[in-house]
Amino acid sequence: MKKHTYDVAILGTGPAGLQAAIHATRKKVSVAVVGKIAKSSAYRAHVENFCCLPQTTGEDLLNRGRLQAEKSGAVFFDQDVVHARQLNGRFQLDLEGGDQIEAKVVILAMGISRKKLGVPGEREWFGKGVSYCVECDANFFRGVPVAVVGCESAAVSGALTSLFYTEHVHLICEELRVAENLAEKLRHSAVTMHEGRRVREIVGSSAVEAVLLDDGTRIPVQGVFIELGAKGALEIATALGVNLDTESFQYVVTNKKQETNVPGVYAAGDICGPPWQIAKAVGEGCVAGLEAADYVRKIS
């Protein structure tokens, strides 16, 4: 594992994360930005209501933002975060490629997307065996067979985490898309792989009983974790002890300085709630970047 130390670690490469990086670096603190730009919800957007840029694409906007941040001194890690923790007054982030980042301050700017499978039984059995968060719900499935569905870092790390709770873990994946370090851990684990397969249906009566695959295979399970894409923003936030809104539990709570309830943790962009606008994300990213840099100076 290769360790890196920075003053500020920014999770997310969308408008909020990039703007935070630009402003933080200008206050002469070291900044790491973690994430994959192409996965930002803004990447494929057609932008026509952003001030001073009436016609552009999300891809162009984000690539320009990254270039600005890099010129200011930010270092980018094109990887997903698989684990986050606070230890001895510092924050540690484990990345899918085997890197570990230690930072004094963290800015959460990863968005909140929850991708669905869109198969029969998914909606019907949500909360009755179907979950979108291994780290939140794995404890409810101790000693019983479970399936984790997905091909990226969230699914693989979720499957490995599930092994702490049960020895019967199935990973269903069309085509594995993770860094070699994470793939190697999976290959040497007790997870049963079903690569090249898709879930056709989630079956149950009063709760989940099995998953049906596209080749007709029926896998008896009592839990189905749908983990599509990178580690969920709210999973990382809650792992750090950050409070969510008490009505929907979908957004991170911040004050006007973009501070969360955890000292040293800031948040900006979609993860803080609607409206889903680039202008809002950029403004919050600006505040978060400036405040995070000031916090670093205060504790250093």
What can you see in these coordinates?
The chain folds into 2 domains: 2-113 and 232-299, FAD/NAD(P)-binding domain, CATH 3.50.50; 130-226, FAD/NAD(P)-binding domain. The model has no long low-confidence stretch (mean pLDDT 92). Strand 14 (208-213) and strand 15 (218-220) form a beta hairpin. Helix 1 (15-26) packs parallel to helix 2 (58-72) and helix 4 (153-162) runs parallel beside helix 5 (180-187). The strands form 4 sheets. Strands 1, 2, 5, 6, 7, 8 and 17 form a 7-stranded mixed β-sheet that branches. The chain has helices at 15-26, 58-72, 134-137, 153-162, 180-187, 233-239, 278-299, and strands at 2-11, 31-34, 46-47, 56-57, 75-77, 81-87, 90-95, 99-108, 130-131, 146-149, 169-173, 192-195, 199-204, 208-213, 218-220, 223-226, 265-267. The chain is of the alpha/beta class and 300 residues long. It is built from 7 helices and 17 strands.
